[in-house]
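[step 3/7] fold_predict: job queued, chain A
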Amino acid sequence: MDTKNNPADHASRGRTAEELVKSNWFSGPRFLWEKEIPYNKEESLVLQIGDPEVKATIFTTVKKQDEFSMVNCISKFFDWQKAVAVVTYLRRLIQRNKPTSIHRTLTEIQEAEFAIFKAMQRCTFKEEIIILSAKGGNHKLAKNGPLIRLDPFLDEYGILRVGGRLQQASFPFEQRHPVILPKAHHVTALIIDRYHKKAKHQGNGLTMNEIHSNGIWVLSLSSAVSSRIHKCVNCRRQRRRPLEDQKMANLPLDRIEPSPPFTYFGMDCFGPFMIKEGRREMKKYAVTFTCMNSHVVHIDIYEQYRRWSYFLNLNLPKESEFN
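[step 4/7] structure written:
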């Protein structure tokens, strides 16, 4: 209701008695006395730019991606074997194959891995793949690019691999021409974690050797492996420094008191060794004596030592009892 027809505005804005008598303060709005309430179109208000009473409203629209992206699908996994398993089953659905069992074959696993590598390389090495697809594309690669020194080529599956001069070598094709992967990618991180666990959480060298032996070449592999191992929870737990420096106990008197050699010593046995006496083979053990004062080591045959130790009232076991 506008201000002219609203009686409540007369009291709030201050009017004299004469003005209240002439106004609709006592009678109310005129349209209340009519049989039908008239319909009045509200005039459209013109909003001024910069009006502090007007709140700005922003609408955003999100466009859903209709096309399936394998790289986005893989980014939701944190285990390489699970990611390969899901891609294997998706390929079965796409190809409409009815497997005889739920188990995956070695061929299906290899094809799933190749599909992941191919999709990832199409995203990260798009320009290089277009150049290599053309005839004589190797000579057109950027001289400052990361792939120029690897002599890359596309295999029969369209996967980017390392070239080199090992084509006539006798070891497998995947080791002669490993698959090229970028350094900073989720798939690369999954592969590094996979082979780091396979190497029993060893250091950078063994993890890198495991990756290379499985036919994978990661750009800047050393820094990528160091970064992933630094984030490994098991490695951080096992290799962390102690909270406090442990103070060692005092040395025993036998190690610091001046004495003749082998006055105090430690003994240990090792073996067996197969030796020949005439025409027969015999199994023998050896015994070591380490002087606790001078750290001199003496090695002797255990059976001979056992014979003369009998006179020292030492009840030592026989060699047959070691097994």
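[step 5/7] annotate
Strands lie at 153-154, 160-161, 179-181, 216-218, 265-277, 280-291, 297-301.
The longest helix spans residues 106-124.
exit 0
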